[in-house]
Design goal:
alpha/beta, Purple Acid Phosphatase, chain A, domain 2, five-stranded mixed beta sheet, four-stranded mixed beta sheet, 8 helices, globular
């Protein structure tokens, strides 16, 4: 059995199918970990959802900010934003089944390491050094319980926002859940205390004063961290002080869709089939 980790699909269904063919992926034998953002910006969000869901136990995905945005639009009263490509999902006859499935996805995946190595962890945006893997798993569980509970709609209505910008153990209610969501799905630059910056979303040279990419801070443990979300990195993590793998190589923006073989570290990718690349940094409101 081989497990592959794949970066953000964002509606790039043709490339996803092509990549699985390149991998000779067999769902009876192999497994997929997907870094979230299955939907939005690309042309075939509905096909991506259906494809991943149909793979059953052979594929698992974490939630990304665009996945949460779909849920907020469908079930939290949020409006679609310019550039969204969610209408086909929202109008699909099987939308409720797809949304139920998506809403039950986790924020964090983890697998035990081999002797002498740390465990493997996937989140959409990364893992701040202030959170151990065990702590992060607990916090991801809090959000999962909310999204699958009776108050999910109320939370989705209030999920958007940039405040609080940093974690505190005494946070409660929506503020607590919002920091959890923003850390797991929107984080790029943080300061030494773990405060999130939401103004910069391009390359490393766009870091505000006092901030650096989350992976340039050391950790006290040694997990292998798999993440997507940051297309401008182009699959690289310069200056990283942790074991990290950037998986979002910007397929929806004219780049490539990439898979990482977790057994041997080999990367396989296919080019985007989009006719005209677009900027990966559209202006949006403060949101997941």
């Amino acid at each position: 059995m081989t497990t592959y980790a794949i970066g953000d699909l964002q509606g790039c269904h043709v490339e996803f199918v092509e990549l699985l063919e390149r991998l000779e992926f067999d769902p009876r034998r192999d497994r997929l970990w997907l870094a979230g953002d299955l939907v939005n910006r690309g042309p075939d969000s509905l096909a991506c959802l259906r494809e991943v869901m149909a793979l059953g136990e052979a594929a698992t995905t974490v939630l990304g900010n665009h996945d949460l945005h779909l849920l907020a639009v469908a079930r939290g009263g949020e409006r679609e934003k310019p550039g969204d490509t969610l209408a086909e999902v929202l109008e699909a006859p099987d939308r409720e089944r797809l949304l139920d499935w998506l809403q039950s996805r986790p924020l964090l995946l983890r697998a035990a390491g081999t002797p002498g190595s740390g465990e493997t962890v996937m989140t959409h945006a990364g893992l701040p050094p202030q959170w151990s893997v065990a702590r992060a798993a607990d916090l991801a569980g809090e959000l999962a319980a909310t999204l699958t509970g009776e108050h999910a709609g109320a939370f989705l209505e209030r999920m958007y926002g940039n405040r609080p910008a940093s974690w505190r153990d005494d946070l409660e209610g929506v503020d607590r859940l919002r920091v959890i969501v923003n850390t797991f799905t929107r984080m790029r630059f943080i300061d030494a205390e773990g405060r999130l910056d939401f103004t910069a979303r391009e390359g490393l040279d766009s870091a505000p004063p006092g901030f650096a990419p989350w992976f340039q801070y050391p950790r006290h443990d040694d997990p292998w961290l798999l993440f997507g979300h940051w297309a401008a990195l182009q699959g690289r993590v310069p200056g990283s002080r942790v074991r990290a793998e950037a998986l979002d190589t910007g397929c929806v923006w004219g780049g490539r869709l990439t898979a990482l073989n977790l057994a041997n570290g080999e990367r396989v990718s296919v080019p985007s089939r989009r006719d005209r690349p677009r900027s990966p940094f559209p202006t949006t409101r403060s949101s997941p």
